[in-house]
Amino acid sequence: MKQLCLLLLCCVLAACGAQPTPALWGATRFEVNRDGRDYVLFQKANQVEVIRLGWVKRGEHQAIRATMIALIAEVTGCQPVAATLKGDSGAMRGRVKCPP
Length: 100
Description:
alpha+beta
């Protein structure tokens, strides 16, 4: 019975897709495809989170991280505050500075 409950829980969580951290619940969600990869970006006020979906080969992580930073500015229209960006090529969080 425990195994069945665990399996059902995993299926439910997998069906949810990319979700933001609790601090960004209620954020605006953007879905973007760049260079054949899918990303989900969440923005709430001056907070932003980017999640890369899918698998990546070794050696591609640095380029993907640069793409994620570029997507923040492109999608939100705000500039990422470099000193606040934390994370890797899978998920990145930080602040943005938006024009008035």
